[in-house]
COX assembly mitochondrial protein (Setaria viridis), 83 residues
Amino acid sequence: MHPPLTLHRHPMCAEIIEAFQKCHVDHPVKKFFGECTDLKIKLDQCFRQEKALKRKANFEESKKFKERLQAYKREMAEENKGP
């Protein structure tokens, strides 16, 4: 199963999505017998790549957030020690 095939949510896979949807329209019965399977495999691979990129970006963002949080905690600890 794949996520909804909306082009604006998957710009990286737009060409493959369009080809896959066209295949389903052009072959309404053959799609059940493997006519569009090659496109489906390419689409799944594209979604995996897209997810890996998002996962990496989220990880980098969380590292930056953790660093800012640690800096803030150190700053607060120094202020509380004070005079």
Remarks:
- The chain has a mean pLDDT of 90.
- The first helix runs from residue 14 to 26.
- The chain has two helices and no strands.
